[in-house]
Amino acid sequence: MxxxxxxPGAKTPSGSSGPRRSDDRPNRPAKPAAKxxxxxxxxxxxxxxxxxxxxxxxxxxxxxxxxVPVILESLGAGDFHLxxxxxxxxxxxxxxxxxxxxxxxxxxxxxxSQPVWDKVDAVFTGDVDEEGTxxxxxxxxxxxxxxxxxxxGVDFFxxxxxxxxxxxxxxxxxxxxxxxxxxxxxxxxxKVLNLFGYTGVASLVAAAAGAEVTHVDASKKAIGWARxxxxxxxxxxxxxxxxxxxxxxxxxxxxxxxNTYDIILTDPPKFGRGPNGEVWHLFEHLPLxxxxxxxxxxxxxxxxxxxxxxxxxxxxxxxxLMREIMRGAxxxxxxxxxxxxxxxxxxxxxxxxxxxxxxSRWVPK
Length: 365
Prior knowledge:
With 365 residues, the protein is an alpha/beta fold. The chain has helices at residues 40-45, 114-118, 173-185, 201-209, 220-232, 247-257, 282-295, 315-325; strands spanning 2-5, 65-74, 80-86, 89-94, 97-102, 122-126, 134-137, 146-151, 154-159, 191-195, 212-217, 240-244, 263-266, 271-273, 279-281, 303-308, 332-341, 353-363. It is built from 8 helices and 18 strands.
């Protein structure tokens, strides 16, 4: 993993794609899933916050210093690496399996030959929209729905879902590695809040490093998958609270109670509908969500991390919002893109960079 700190004039993140990796997901209501393998965005749409009920705080003081554009890059990690990409697809290695999935931002031609692309274990076919259902084709032999994976010292299940996802978004490794380092060097148990926590890999990484973790997701299926991951790694005794609740309701209640956290990770969807007809639009509701997150940061907070997928915007939109929200808090706001670099068949031969998402991160210094 490398961090490149570029100044204005460097590339601007493309507008995008969907939760997870440059995804172009249409604003479509979530469909009920029959299995724990519910797609990430579908899971999130059932977990959408109620439009909220408090005004934004009036912030005073200087804005934090800025570091832009920051490109956080991964060349793969653990059981994952991006082998090749092109022609609107990506060729990836997930543990023992080599898979092909759609990737709208892979506009170039593949580097590797067609026979290499044909020699795979699974190919996602069907609806290429991130929120559309499809199916997996297994060219060699039928594979089970789940298989074990390992990342940053944590075991978890990969799963062939009908929405192309496999249960982990490896570009997030750069945020998780940063969080793990902060927890390990803190000299005290940090409290970590993981909003829209999905399958719990980040929560397990933080807890294994010594943090006290609160994991929030409104999908029972996602919480169930996260608990399966916890059991797989025999991590049941780690201090993790699994909260099945809508994220905005949870943080509003934490604010009223005066509870605080040292690190907050938030990875909200672009659009969603709650079970009672609530509607979440990222551009409308994100300012309040970040405003509340600031209020529940502890006096010795280590960071607030926002990742955004599927939005047609520059990273500057969330960068400037984060700086306004953190007025008077000092520190710095660093924003840019998460990218994964191709690693070739061996995972160690750097190739082209594939942009996946936008991010903004406040740190105290």
